[in-house]
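> tool_call: predict_assembly(chains=two)
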Amino acid sequence: MTTYDADGITLEKVREYVWEIPQEGDMRTPARVLASEALLDEISDDKTLQQIKNATHLPGITNHAICMPDGHQGYGFPVGGVGALDAKNGCISPGAVGYDINCGVRMMTTNLTYDDVRGNEEELVDALFANVPSGLGGGGIVKGDADAIEGILARGVEWAVEEGYGVEDDLRACEDEGRRPDADPSAVSQKAKDRGRNQIGSLGSGNHFLEIQRVTDVFREDVGDAFDLREDQIVVLIHCGSRGLGHQVCNDYLRKIEKQHADLLDRLPDKELAAAPAGSELAEEYYGAMCAAINFAWVNRQLIMHRTRRVFERVFDRTWEQMEMQLLYDVAHNIAKKESHDVDGESRELYVHRKGATRAFPAGHPEVPAAYRDVGQPIIIPGSMGAGSYVLRGGDKSMTETFGSTAHGAGRLMSRTAAKDTYWGGDVQDELEQDGVYVKAQSGATVAEEAPGVYKDVDEVVRVSDALGIGDKVARTFPVCNIKG
Amino acid sequence: MSYELRDHTADVAVAADGDTLGETFAAVADGLTAAMCETVPDDGERFELTVTAESREALLFDFLDELIFQRDVRSVLPADHEASVESDGDKWTVTASARGVPFSSVHAREIKAVTYSEMDLSRTGDGWEAYVVFDV
C-alpha cells in the first residue's frame, strides 16, 4: 500500500487523489484528504491534517471528515473541510461552519468583451472603489433600521428585490432562490443585529474582493452555453460574507454551547469544534440564526452586485439591461445545511458542514435551479489576483465522494505576517498592473497579504477536482480590475 | 507588558504577557489593534467597558469579543488599552478602557472575530502569558 508520512500522521492511498487517515483513538470515522501529492506536500505543512482528524470526533460524523484539495489550517475545523453530521443523533457545530457564515462568491455575466473595457480600467476601478464600501468602517450601501434588518434576515434577496436592489431574475439564479426558509431572526442577538446595521452592502477586509474579469478559456462548450460564458467576455466576481452580524452569531452560539453543553465540549479535542447535540433547543436556535445570517450574506452580495450594475451604467453610458448584467450563480462557502444523502443505501438527514468548501450538486439533482438542472450547478472558484479564477459545474461523483461538495478557492500557503515581510503592497500593485490587472485597496498591507504568491496553485486544485469528478472544469477567467478592503 | 504578532496560515495570532492578568488582557488587546492597523494616530476619546464571565479564559474571549463589537457600533478603532481583572470566586470581571480612534482618521483592516482555537492563558514565574488566534 502506498502511504504518505506527514509529521506523525500517516495517510494511506485509497486511489488516485484519495488519501485516508485511519480511525484510531477517539476518532469516530476515518478522515479523508482529496489531493495530489504536490497539494498534500502543502496541506501537511501546517495543522490541517490534525484538524481534519479532530473533526472526526464530532458525534454523528458520517463516512469520513473530508479535506478538499485546497484545504489549509483554520481554527477548530480546517478550511476546506466537509463534515456530514447526523441531523437526528449527531450535532451541529458553529465552529465547523466558521465565523463568516455564508462567506461566498457570486458571478455576474455581461455582454461586454475585453476590448470594450480596455482603456477604461482605471476609471472603472476608481468608480467601483468609490461606490462599493470596503475595509474597516467603510459603512454599507444601505443603513438598516430595525425593520430592514428583520426583512433581510427573514426574507433574504426577496427583501432586496422588493426594495429595488435587484430584479426577479436574480432570485432564479441563487441557491434557495436567495431565501433560506429555516431562518429565524429572533434567534439572532441584538448585538449581532447592531453590528450588521452599518454593514449592509459592504465587502469588508481580508481575502474579500470585487473583481472585473475576462473569460480566457471555455473548456466545455455545452456547459459554457448553459452558463452564458464565452471567451473574451467580461464577468464580475464578488467575494464577501455576512459581515459583523455573522461573526457575532458564531461567537454568541460558541459561548452558549460552552455554558449549556460543556459535557459534549469536554469530549472534543478542540474548543472551537463546539457543537450542540441534534434535537437540542440550542441546535434549533443556532440553525435558525445561521440561516438568517445566510440570508444577510446573500443580501450583502446582492446589494454590491446591483451597485456594480449602476457603476457600469455610468462608466459605459448604457443601461445594465443593455449590458445584460445577469447573475450566473451565488455559492456559499461557510454553511451547514440540512440535506438528504444516500448513506449505505439508506436516505439520511444530515447537517452537511462545508467550511471553505462549495456545494457541487450534479446534473439532475432536484435542488439545482431549473436553468442549470441539465448541466449541473455552477461552482465559482476564485483564485489569486495573479492567477485567475475558474467556473466549474457539479460533477457526477460529488454525491458519492464528498456529500455533494468541492473546493472553494486556491487556499492559502503563506501566513499574513510572512506575506507582509515578503511583499510590499505597492510593488505587488505595480507588477499586477504590468500584467493588465488594476488593483485598488483601502490598505497596502491587504495587497501584500493577498499577493498572488501567498496562495496555492489554483490550477492544481481545479485539476484534482475535475479528475475526481466532484467539480468539472467549465471556464477560466483572469482579473482585469480588483478592489478590496 | 508586551505583545507580538505570530504566524498563522490564514489568520493572525497574538502572543502577549504582563505582570498581572489585567496587563496581559490589555497587551492582547493592543496586539489586536496592531493586527488591524500599523500606525495608529493620537486622536480619539477614551471609552470604558466592563465584562463578566465564568472563567479567566472565557473572560479574555468575551473581553476581546466586546472590543470588536464596540469597534463596529462606535465606528472607532480601540487602542491604548488598559484593563484590570478581579474575581469574586464565582465570576471574573474585567474593567477596561480604550481610546476610540475614529475610523475616518485611520487606514485599518478588519479582524472578524476572536477564536478559542489554541487559546492559552497561563501563569508564568512572575506574571501571565496569553496566546490568542483571531479570524481575519
